Amino acid sequence: MRLRIPGVAWLLIAGDGFASIFRFLVMPFLAIYMHAVTGADPAVVGLVIGLGAASNLVASFLLGPLSDRIGRKPSLVWGTAMQVLSLAGFAVAHSLAAFAVLQVLGGLVWALQGPAYMALLTDLTPEEMRTRVFGFNYWAVNIGAAVGPLIGAVIGAGHAALPFLIAAASQVVLMAALVLFVPKESGEAASGAGSLESLRHMFQGLRHRILFWVFAGTFLANLGYSQIETNLAQYLGLHYAHGAQLYAYVIAANAITVVVLQPIVSRWQEGKPLIVSFAGGALVYAAANALFIAAVAPWAWISINAFFTIGEVLLAPVGQSVIALYAPPDQRATYFALQNVIFGLSFAVGPSLGGLVLGAGGKLGLFGSMSLVNLLACAAFLVAFAPNVARRSRAA
User: Fold this and answer.
1) What are the backbone angles phi and psi of residue 27, rounded to the nearest 5°?
2) pLDDT digits (tens, 9 = 90+) for 37-49
3) How far is residue 371's CA from residue 291's CA, in Å, rounded to a whole number?
4) Cβ neighbour number for residue 272 with a 10 Å cutoff
5) What topology does CATH give the domain 7-189?
6) Of 312, 136, 288, 323, whose CA–CA distance to 222 is shortest?
């Protein structure tokens, strides 16, 4: 009997893609808009922007377990309502304090919504189809990330309040769809679990041997990935006359590669042992970083980053599949929140650490060290699925 992706899962994927278009319609321009409204200097604006990531990281410890307790649908509906308030608030904010509060609220939204959404997608999808579903979801979000900023630039995002109101209205539509189409019985609340007990469950995920080594490998892999969004841009800006334009092309290559390859790779990954994608993705990262050392011509940076993105395409769905496979059904949101914490920590440490290495060792130091870091990530993934740890590598 051929398995099919449930209709509700397709609806959720479409909704996440729709929401990402409107998030990216305004959020990449938030720093520009904040400076225009408040006149704050770039350092202060950067500090306020960073509050969103900080609140997301801290709140994940509590709101992930809370998502398991109150259920998937209530978490998504309440999170979306908070998102409406956050986006609409940016349209009327005039002080740095107001922007700071809204950024903290935005971080809370993702800490509540993100784990609940991934847990719901897991609940609704047969085990054999999960890698493909997670891949399609990642694909839809990346399409939104590619389209949203283009629309935002056309309608004046960064210079006007109206785009934030449009984005808020889109979330109202999404909330209505969640209320109408997501079944109430989706997901299980962790019956009888207090908040402290639920928080304890999160740390139990680190005592699961396979998950521990997968999380360790993921942390190391994301240390390398974080350089693409931060220190690569810094290096190109300092060493090329049109570095900002070149970096835009580099990032465009990333988006195009994801959009073209993700559906193909996600189908290919079905039935394959998880270790194939984990180790393969880390090795692609390591090889691409080694190639960056020799890059000189602009086309080389663009093409190597497209190759680097193959590693991202391999790793993104299986990172979620392994949690869906090993997390207890009534604690899935808690475990996805733990993944969110690992991701956040890597992106908090990676840019500053990479900046120090870039300053001390230049291009060779940065990309050479990141290549080694990704080889260590590959080793961690191999340990996770080694015969003495897991009798067999489970397929997604």
Assistant:
1) -65, -35
2) 888 887 788 788 8
3) 9
4) 15
5) Growth Hormone; Chain: A; (1.20.1250)
6) 312
Tell me which H or E stretch contains 269: helix 243-269
The residues pairing with 160 across neighbouring beta strands, listed in sequence order, are 157
362 contacts: CB under 8 Å, gap ≥ 6: none
Q: Where in the chain is the domain with CATH 1.20.1250.20?
A: 7-189, 203-384
Instruction: Find out whether 117 and 76 touch, Cβ atoms under 8 Å.
Output: yes
For the whole model, what pTM was predicted? 0.86
Q: pLDDT, tens digit, for every residue of 346-366?
A: 888 888 888 888 888 989 999
CATH 1.20.1250.20 fits 203-384, yes or no: yes
Q: Which residues contact 175 (CB under 8 A, 6 or more apart)?
A: 77, 80, 81, 84
DSSP 91-103: HH--SHHHHHHHH
CB atoms within 10 A of CB 156: 13
